[in-house]
């Protein structure tokens, strides 16, 4: 398994990407990690004499910045680390790529450099959202494409179901459609038209799911358009951040509140870990002819390591091939 990591992408790159790559390389000897980026900067964080044999560096002289316009950057910065990593997949020199860099640029790299799976109209960004039962929910699309059609949502549902089956081992993933109510005819025109398509699809569709039930584990796969999905994601991140900030203020307000904090600390730490995106590693860009994973911009070394773990499982389960086969069956009328 050859996994290319965009060493220059992310808020703390290349330090965290290199550190995470080294952790992963030491954990899984069957993975060949290719760090893509400026050789000199990468070398500064590589321990002298103790670099694992399954880590190599592929030089790339340029970087796509967080504020770069995605399409223009991908087309003009041909030697940017992210673009080079995508090209390694296209040329067969890598089986997967991971980046914590510019999200829009990674979407563009997936589309223009790696390419879409034949039959998939729009790729979907599919992160795992935490749930109270620790099983998580795969939500898609959460930002790759803002104006989805009912058929796009159908493809998201099928790809999400395949992902949870292949990567997480769920035999019959429950697929829900994000909506304002649970009744079949609730919602806007998009969800009303998508509902009957999902009913007829070869998936375990359980109907509409309201946002308030997502964290309770109402479904295993949550389907929505990228606009609504991204708002859901940012709302959850903002709410979690605010809650932890308020708790920190309250528990340090007085001597007695500090005592209470000491008693509750184990539970609070466990809850924070449950809500931490670093534990989930990365979000796959499903529908791309190659495995492309997006890590959070502020990912630490542990998040990068977890992203490698995800990529390793997805490659072993032949996720991309399974999605390609399923869409091919639909295209040939063999459902």
TrEMBL record:
Keywords: Acyltransferase, Cytoplasm, Lipid biosynthesis, Lipid metabolism, Phospholipid biosynthesis, Phospholipid metabolism, Transferase. The keyword Acyltransferase applies. GO terms for molecular function: phosphate:acyl-[acyl carrier protein] acyltransferase activity. It comes from the Bacteria. Pathway: Lipid metabolism; phospholipid metabolism. It is found in: Cytoplasm. It catalyses: a fatty acyl-[ACP] + phosphate = an acyl phosphate + holo-[ACP]. GO terms for cellular component: cytoplasm. The keyword Cytoplasm applies. Its EC number is 2.3.1.274. GO terms for biological process: fatty acid biosynthetic process; phospholipid biosynthetic process. It is an enzyme of class 2 (transferase). Catalyzes the reversible formation of acyl-phosphate (acyl-PO(4)) from acyl-[acyl-carrier-protein] (acyl-ACP). This enzyme utilizes acyl-ACP as fatty acyl donor, but not acyl-CoA. Belongs to the PlsX family. Homodimer. Probably interacts with PlsY. PANTHER family: FATTY ACID/PHOSPHOLIPID SYNTHESIS PROTEIN PLSX, PHOSPHATE ACYLTRANSFERASE. This is Phosphate acyltransferase. It comes from Paenibacillus oceani. The gene is plsX.
């Amino acid at each position: 398994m050859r996994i290319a990591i965009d060493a220059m992408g992310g808020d703390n790159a290349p330090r965290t990407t290199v550190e995470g790559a080294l952790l992963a390389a030491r954990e899984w000897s069957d993975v060949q990690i290719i760090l893509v980026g400026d050789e000199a900067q990468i070398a500064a964080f590589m321990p002298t004499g103790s670099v694992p044999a399954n880590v190599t560096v592929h030089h790339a002289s340029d970087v796509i910045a967080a504020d770069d316009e995605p399409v223009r950057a991908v087309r003009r910065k041909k030697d940017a680390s992210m673009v080079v990593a995508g090209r390694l997949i296209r040329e067969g020199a890598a089986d997967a790529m991971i980046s914590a860099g510019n999200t829009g640029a990674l979407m563009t790299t997936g589309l223009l450099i790696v390419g879409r799976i034949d039959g998939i109209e729009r790729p979907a960004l599919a992160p795992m959202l935490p749930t109270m039962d620790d099983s998580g929910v795969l939500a898609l699309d959460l930002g790759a494409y803002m104006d989805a059609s009912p058929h796009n949502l159908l493809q998201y549902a099928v790809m999400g179901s395949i992902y949870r089956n292949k990567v997480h081992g769920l035999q019959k993933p429950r697929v829900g459609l994000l909506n304002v109510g649970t009744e079949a005819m609730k919602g806007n025109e998009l969800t009303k038209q998508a509902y009957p398509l999902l009913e007829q699809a070869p998936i375990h569709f359980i109907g509409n799911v309201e946002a308030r039930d997502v964290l309770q584990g109402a479904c295993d796969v949550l389907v929505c358009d990228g606009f609504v999905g991204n708002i859901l994601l940012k709302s959850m991140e903002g709410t979690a951040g605010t809650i932890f900030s308020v708790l920190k203020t309250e528990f340090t307000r007085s001597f007695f509140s500090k005592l209470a904090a000491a008693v509750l600390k184990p539970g609070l730490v466990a809850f924070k870990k449950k809500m931490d995106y670093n534990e989930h590693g990365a979000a796959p860009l499903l529908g791309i002819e190659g495995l492309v994973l997006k890590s959070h911009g502020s990912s630490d070394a542990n998040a990068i390591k977890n992203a490698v773990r995800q990529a390793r499982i997805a490659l072993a389960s032949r996720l991309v091939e399974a999605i390609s086969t399923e869409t091919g069956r639909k295209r040939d009328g063999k459902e």
